[in-house]
Amino acid sequence: MQTLRTLATFVLLLLSVWLGGTCTTDAAPRTTVPAAMGQPASGQQDRILFIIASAKVHGTSTLPASVSFGEVVHAWDVFHAAGYAVDFVSPDGGAVPILDDYVSDDVAHRLDDARIMRGLRGTVTPAQIDPTQYRAVYYVGGSNAMYGVAESVALQRIAMQVYEGNGGVISAVCHGTAGIVNLQLAGGQYLVSGKRISGYPEEHERQDAPYFNQFPFLIRQTVVSRGGAFRTVESDDPHVEVDGRLVTGQNYASATPVAQAVVEALRIHTVQASNQAAAQP
């Protein structure tokens, strides 16, 4: 019996070498090789694109600015659980700033989560993105979200391809809403025009702090000037506005419900598209 087992193991090893892989007799689970840094992942899985600012300081100052790490983690968890893959893009590509003050205690341990940190340390540039591959975009907040994203024509094109070309969802949370204020439909109308929008309002900012004077624009004021209906609550409770395929959240606490609303909006759109296809003669 021992001889037979030894022979079987030897045969398996020979097959493994011949097939170019490895094989073990204890049926160890297979693992997939993660996407290389600096390249968006590939494959047939439905994808969502996180749009993150590259800025490390506020405007022209030396005041440090950062991504809101929790707004990445909480949304990533929802999308991952729903079966979506996530890619990360920023205006400049590469690592984005994550300051300790923007890492809450509930997510601090996720700084060791390679699945997320690989993306944040190696965001791709807009030129590396094929926007036809995405079902939704998610604009991440943090103090640096006020800089470099809203004015990026390349990011605007990606977002509008997802929204108009793919029939996908545009979403944003907290200061991430700054990234959508300049988006325009094919006909030239601002995306936020006539829409219910939320985001971090200027009246909740520390307006006497040096960073506030660096803001290139104010979120509420700009949304309203573009024809949007800006809605918020006075507390730090979650607040989400869903207007068709546009989903926005007010604050850090809104990251999870924003992501949940995106998943639901995508589900509804899929059902509607399926029903329309079935109704075709």
From TrEMBL:
Entry keyword set: Hydrolase, Lyase, Protease, Signal, Stress response
Top-level lineage group: Bacteria
GO-annotated biological processes: methylglyoxal catabolic process to D-lactate via S-lactoyl-glutathione; proteolysis
Any Pfam family hit: DJ-1_PfpI
Residue ranges of domain DJ-1/PfpI in the record: 71-264
SUPFAM superfamilies: Class I glutamine amidotransferase-like (SSF52317)
Organism name: Stenotrophomonas rhizophila
Protein name: Intracellular protease/amidase
Family to which this protein belongs: Belongs to the peptidase C56 family. HSP31-like subfamily.
